[in-house]
Design brief:
By secondary structure, this protein is an alpha/beta fold. The protein has 2 domains: 208 residues, Rossmann fold (3-Layer(aba) Sandwich); 179 residues, Rossmann fold (3-Layer(aba) Sandwich). Helices cover 41% and strands 19% of the residues. It is built from 15 helices and 14 strands. The strands form 2 sheets. Strands 3-4-2-1-5-6-7-8 form an 8-stranded mixed sheet, with helices on both faces. The chain has a 6-stranded parallel sheet with strand order 11-10-9-12-13-14, sandwiched between helices. The two termini are 14 Å apart.
Length: 400
């Protein structure tokens, strides 16, 4: 099977859930060409590189991430045109499946053009329900011109997708409820996934903690990921304030984003000593640090009405960490981890609930936390491993 994968999330130098997914298809004997953005250029020819058996086409797009809102908006609006213009000049030998992920939702014309040219199946990996997520946290106004424009794009993308893979059962239910015109048979669960390799066992925790000036003795919590409006940084700040006098707890935050300096300024102003904020780490260093932690944290803004399933939870599971999720009420991470005894959950507007969970964790011994972490990893292998998800996706494609 020949697959063309359109995405903004495929790195050239590190691994993530998309590189793992592509390698999963390669291992099954399929041919994959990745079409990704090149943010370092806004014009020029398509870059062609190879990573093992994967051919990678890089389309000049200009900055889409880590830039100001105006530039990001302009380049996002031009994204579809730039992809379409460059891909139309590129001849694929054959295409059986177009695989594409949100964000963005503006691949509609590219998908239509490829389907018409190659008579192939179109498969959407729905990782981001936009524009509703932007409305929930106040970035876009309900029923505004911008909302109506992007909602029209969203519905057309769904319409021209033969199959839609959602991150979780709650995602499936949300999509069906708000888009009743979609046939049930085209929607299924295709969650985020990674390869669950065994974690390193040779890491010296004391050396790793010394490297980042982190004390060895406390219970170690970690959050790794974006620090933007979707994470509800105000609640993260409230949680840090709650932990301020807890010498037996230490929180390490690794990430950057639009709210990074808000968090950094709070730590400096209040002389917080049991939280360490690290703006960026290479993936290998981050995973080394992760392997030394006790609990992995998830934060999502309480205002979300769409169910999210953050991909960073997978690395926590991979390293056998219990999950402590602070999210909105519609997110089904709660059911996933709590029903399996793999972690803790509280609403991301419930500081009293957060306080009670911290109290509970402090009363637990190390073996109890390790048992929760073991169940966390078992959950990854059972439902979020690349072989399982790829097999599920291929079954859906073959039965289309």
């Amino acid at each position: 099977m020949r697959i063309v994968f359109l995405t903004l999330g495929y790195p050239l130098t590190e691994r993530n859930l998309y590189t793992d997914l592509v390698d999963g298809f390669i291992e099954q004997g399929h041919d994959v060409t990745v079409v990704r953005q090149d943010e370092t250029r806004s014009r020029g020819d398509v870059g062609v590189t190879y990573s093992g058996k994967v051919r990678i086409l890089s389309i000049p797009t200009g900055r889409l991430l880590q830039t100001n809102f105006i530039r990001k908006g302009i380049n996002t609006l031009l994204l579809e045109y730039r992809f379409l213009r460059k891909i139309s000049k590129h001849k694929f030998e054959a295409v059986d499946v177009i695989l594409y992920s949100t964000p963005p939702i503006t691949f509609q014309k590219v998908v239509i053009a490829l389907k018409r040219k190659y008579q192939c199946i179109s498969y959407l990996l729905l990782k981001d329900i936009f524009p509703q997520n932007a409305i929930d946290i106040g970035i876009i106004k309900q029923n505004s011109l911008l909302h109506r424009f992007f909602r029209s794009k969203e519905k057309k993308l769904y319409q021209h997708s033969d199959i839609i893979g959602c991150m979780s059962p709650a995602n499936v239910n949300y999509l069906r409820m708000h888009n009743p015109e979609l046939a049930d048979k085209k929607i299924h669960v295709a969650p985020n996934c990674i390869f669950p390799e065994e974690q390193k066992t040779s890491v010296n925790k004391k050396d790793v903690f010394n490297k980042y000036d982190i004390p060895v003795e406390p219970v170690h919590f970690i959050y790794g990921g974006n620090l933007g409006k979707p994470q509800g940084v105000d609640f993260i700040i409230n949680c840090i304030g709650e932990l301020k006098n807890e010498d037996s707890c230490f929180l390490t935050i690794v990430g950057k984003g639009t709210e990074y300096y808000k968090l950094s300024n709070f730590l400096l102003k209040n002389n917080i000593t049991n939280t360490r904020l690290i703006e960026h780490l290479p993936k290998e260093d981050y995973l080394e640090l992760l392997s030394c932690m006790n609990i992995g944290m998830i934060f999502l803004d309480s205002r979300f009405t769409i169910p999210n399933f953050p991909s960073r939870i997978l690395d926590y599971m991979k390293y056998s960490l219990p999950i402590f999720a602070c999210t909105d009420n519609v997110c089904d991470v709660k059911q996933e981890i709590c029903d399996r005894g793999a972690g803790f959950w509280c609403g991301s507007d419930d500081i009293d609930g957060f306080r009670e969970i911290i109290k509970n964790i402090k009363s637990m011994n190390g073996d109890a936390l390790k048992s929760m972490g073991k169940r966390s990893r078992e959950l990854l292998i059972e439902k979020y491993s690349v072989p399982f998800v790829v097999e599920n996706m291929l079954s859906k494609i073959n039965n289309f």
